[in-house]
């Protein structure tokens, strides 16, 4: 249904949609915003801004569709258009990482790294979080949306305004980068990796 | 991916179609609706070592992210501030 075809909601309907469908996602939105900005106040501002926009543009939301994905899309756009612009510090992007992995839908699927399942299971939340937080924001974003928030590829494509094929390839690259970070961390912390075990044998 | 086990009955040590297999396994792990996904996993994991390793590692990382990463929640003060702002906007709109 196009926006022009969609009926305008009455004040009562607006309030009902806002309170019933939008407000329950406040914590998820804050978690996403915090993982984008790493700052409590900025994260709060982003969430607040998202809710104010959601109210202003509520007529473009189709009741019964995925409200959480709709809100996340607004938040992501606000982050790109406003937060990144007004932020005094440039976004933490490893440009070499991005140039190497980012500009194509073609993914080079390679054999597995020597990171071990047991090492991953033994790692603490902080260790996993630090590895995730060290990724460039676009790679971090797809992992947060997929693995933390449980969005489908289709929903992620809508939130990020990219084709599903790009979601898949970006997610694969993001996970490879994350594995590299986790592998380095595992070695640093003395967890065994397969390559070390081979060297010993 | 090779359809058959090697002569010793062990998993094949090399996957003949890594791109297709890994992509498929990742789509299954991510909960995409793939017909016969259980059978596909069973077959690939039984017969191909790279697929076996990739599947279990990807699954472990996904589970670790989901269960171990802290979910940051808003303080009640922050929530209350936002609710106030929204209320102001609602009143202005009437």
From TrEMBL, chain A:
CDD domains in alphabetical order: Sigma70_r4
Every RNA polymerase sigma-70 region domain range: 24-88
Tree of life domain: Bacteria
Domain spans labelled RNA polymerase sigma factor 70 region 4 type: 127-176
Listed GO biological process terms: DNA-templated transcription initiation
Listed GO MF terms: DNA binding; sigma factor activity
Keyword field: Sigma factor, Transcription, Transcription regulation
Keyword Magnesium: no
One family name in Pfam for this protein: Sigma70_r2
PANTHER family, sorted: ECF RNA POLYMERASE SIGMA FACTOR SIGR (PTHR43133:SF59), RNA POLYMERASE ECF-TYPE SIGMA FACTO (PTHR43133)
Family membership noted in the UniProt record: Belongs to the sigma-70 factor family. ECF subfamily.
Protein name: RNA polymerase sigma factor RpoE
Automatic annotation (TrEMBL), chain B:
Recorded superkingdom: Bacteria
Identification of the protein by name: Anti-sigma factor
UniProt source species: Nitritalea halalkaliphila LW7
Taxonomic lineage of the native organism: Bacteria, Pseudomonadati, Bacteroidota, Cytophagia, Cytophagales
